[in-house]
Write a structure and sequence with these properties.
The complex is a heterodimer of chains A (473) and B (199). With 473 residues, chain A is of the alpha/beta class. Chain A has 17 helices and 19 strands. In chain A, the strands form five sheets. In chain A, strands 5-4-3-6-7 form a five-stranded parallel sheet. Chain B contains eight helices and seven strands, in the order E-H-H-E-H-E-H-E-H-E-E-E-H-H-H. The chains are: A alpha/beta (473), B alpha/beta (199).
């Protein structure tokens, strides 16, 4: 019987098959380990205590992204505790010989933006990082997933991980996305459809015409949010779009190696006679701009819809969750989503902080002005994205519209640095999580696509670009 | 790592589903570079509410948390596990755990005991009717027990064999893996030459 894409990549990395002792799972080799300042200090401490080196510094790359400021980059980090965390990474990477792209380095940025950008993320690889959005790299046909700090230490010491074999799932998206509907709308629709726990225990392969039509950036947005419905990883089979994106990048193979690599990558497809443990089929042509109303990414509705009532849900657990979410979000059931006023719009994150996202936002904001009581924060995903945007004049468009143009990092996606919402402040955010307090204590988050974020900034209420055209006629 | 065979302690009913890791410990508390001292961040936002279960004795002295489905969703932060442990929890009982949280718990020595939905409901009812009731999580027998008489709860829980074995034996899995170093070296010798390096 044939194999799925995920099974092929998995099998290629088994160092030692399950068995022995107390039922050890497969020992899996890791091709690339990405490291950042928040989830690594205790792992390096563990190595130091045990007197262990980093086994493969040449397959390990560190950057500073979660806890770094996006303003005043020429000054020392103001918060002393944050400064210590960043300095700890600098000390650890130096001591253990790991390459670091620190604040101020041209390659600094969000881990999941810089891997693909450098060409380090390639089809068929295993990639891990102490961050749940590592699933982003699955867009290239890599098996990529987030790990905790104990596992970070395990990978640093052994370049492997003990992993139980996950189940496989196919999400087939037929049709084509209508104009103005993005990969973000697709994945938000999917998560509401299946629920936040629907992917638990599965590696998911996204496939079908609508997925094949997506750019690499769009595929990264979809794979990025795999974790938001509980999946271990999400991946897309590599194709010409993937190869075109990779060719010529600094760490991509070149010359004869390129041809050898592409030949291998072309074999990374699910065999026709392979079966998945579960399959879901969606139709992209019916999708519309989609936003969240609640406090988990599965609590979403079309932008054209209204805030649901708790009694709209069948499961008792969902009813209670909806009641709690409405209270936290300060929303009344039945309110049209388009009537919801927003204080802050955040464009950025590993979900939507790539150059394509900034171009899309700038195209909508050009010649328009951010609403009087609304703040627009644009945070590029990496220094390279920032420089590219400035070369194209996108920063000028954002600033002339009244937005703030920042340095690269995770920023308001998780509100670990100073970029936070205040209590009861409401955001439309292109990031990935609308959990209670995620963007700041008491803050209220609506997850949106880039076009919805840009249109919302202009109108001050949740909107799509189509609303702009109507109101300007 | 310390061994875990069985633990008995006060049960804490947390009547919530989708308890994500940002609730367990908000990002603002993740700046420490140690594995200790995270107890202040545990459920930080909810502890601001006087009605929250951990603001009341005897629950405040609890060590077995009983929560709704999809516990630990979201971020990969192992700090969520450390915050629970630093506070004094030894086990969490839930009908469903997020994968990364469950993995982190197993590595750090916090038992994530997966039980049937109905078991959680009955534990919640019991722990609320009789505050201070102790819950026993028996890793050897894979059972969770609480109360006596007609309302007593006893049922089995799921945990993967490898994690159970490692916790019972108190084994460091890096040590186990390094026992297979020859296999790792052999594998490395067969990797494609064109694979990228970060150097």
């Amino acid at each position: 019987m044939g194999l799925t894409l995920a099974e092929k990549v998995w099998n290629d990395h088994v160092v030692r098959a399950a068995g022995g002792g107390g039922g050890e799972p497969d020992l899996l080799y890791v091709d690339l380990h990405l490291v950042h300042e928040v989830t690594s200090p205790q792992a390096f401490d563990g190595l130091r205590l045990a007197g262990r080196p980093v086994r493969r510094p040449d397959l390990t790359l560190a950057t500073e992204d979660h806890n770094v400021p996006t303003v005043d980059l020429d000054k020392p980090i103001a918060d002393p505790v944050s400064r210590t965390q960043v300095e700890t990474l600098r000390r650890n990477t130096e001591e253990f010989g790991v390459r670091l792209h620190p604040l101020g380095d041209i390659e600094q940025g969000i881990v999941h933006i810089i891997g693909p950008q450098l060409g380090l993320t390639q089809p068929g690889m295993t990639i891990v990082c102490g961050d749940s959005h590592t699933s982003t790299h699955g867009a290239f046909g890599a098996l990529a997933f987030g790990i905790g700090t104990s596992e970070v230490e395990h990978v640093l010491a052994t370049q492997t991980l003990m992993q139980a074999r996950p189940k496989t799932m196919a999400v087939t998206v037929n049709g084509s996305l209508p104009a103005g509907v993005t990969a973000k709308d697709l994945v938000l629709t999917l998560i509401t459809h299946i629920g936040t726990g629907g992917g638990q225990g599965y590696v998911v392969e996204y496939r079908g015409p609508a997925i094949e039509e997506l750019s690499m950036e769009g595929r990264m947005t979809v794979c990025n949010m795999s974790i938001e419905w509980g999946a271990k990883a999400g991946l897309v089979a590599p194709d010409q779009t993937t190869f075109d994106y990779l060719q010529g990048r600094p760490k991509a193979p070149s010359g004869a190696d390129w041809d050898t690599a592409v030949e291998h990558w072309r074999s990374l497809r699910t065999d026709d006679d392979a079966t998945y443990d579960r399959e879901i089929v969606l139709d992209a042509s019916e999708m519309t701009p989609f936003v969240t109303w609640g406090t988990n990414p599965g609590q979403g509705v079309p932008l054209s819809g209204a805030v649901p009532a708790p009694e709209d849900f069948d499961e008792p657990g969902d009813v209670v969750a909806a009641e709690k979410a409405l209270t936290y979000m300060g929303l009344a059931a039945g309110t049209p989503m388009r009537d919801i006023s927003v204080d802050t719009v955040f464009v950025g994150s590993c979900t939507n902080g790539r150059i394509e996202d900034l171009r899309l936002a700038a195209g909508i904001l050009e010649g328009r002005t951010v609403a009087a009581d609304t703040r627009l924060l644009v945070v590029p995903g990496s220094v390279r994205v920032r420089l590219q945007a400035e070369e194209e004049g996108l920063d000028v468009i954002f600033k002339e519209a009244g937005g703030e143009w920042r340095g690269a990092g995770c920023s308001m996606c998780l509100g670990m640095n100073a970029d936070q919402l205040g209590p009861q402040e409401r955001s439309a955010s292109t990031s990935n999580r609308n959990f209670e307090g995620r963007q700041g204590k008491g803050g209220r988050t609506h997850l949106v696509s880039v076009p919805v974020a840009a249109a919302t900034a202009i109108r001050g209420t949740l909107s799509s670009p189509a609303d702009l055209d109507r109101s300007e006629q | 790592m310390d061994t875990f065979t069985r633990h008995t302690g006060i049960g804490v009913p947390l009547r919530r589903s989708n308890v994500d890791t940002d609730q367990i410990i908000p990002a603002a508390y993740l700046k420490r570079v140690t594995r200790t001292g995270f107890e202040d961040g545990l459920f930080a936002a909810w502890r601001g509410d006087p009605g929250f279960v951990l603001n009341h004795e005897p629950y405040a002295s609890g060590s077995v948390l009983v929560a709704g489905p999809d516990f630990g969703t979201g971020s990969s932060r192992e700090h969520a596990v450390w915050a629970l442990q630093n506070y004094g929890f030894r086990a969490v009982v839930s009908p469903r755990f997020a994968d990364i949280f469950r993995g982190n718990a197993g590595k750090a020595g916090l038992v994530a005991a997966q039980v049937d939905d109905k078991v959680v409901q009955r534990l919640w009812d019991l722990l609320e009717a009789e505050p201070g009731t102790e819950v026993t999580v028996d890793l050897e027998a894979r059972t969770v027990r609480a109360g006596e008489g007609a309302d007593a709860v006893e049922d089995s829980f799921d945990i993967d064999d490898y994690t159970r074995w490692r916790l019972l034996e108190g084994l460091d899995d890096i040590g186990i893996t390094l026992g297979h170093e020859a296999d790792i070296t052999t594998y490395e010798g067969q990797r494609a030459a064109w694979l990228p390096s970060t150097g």
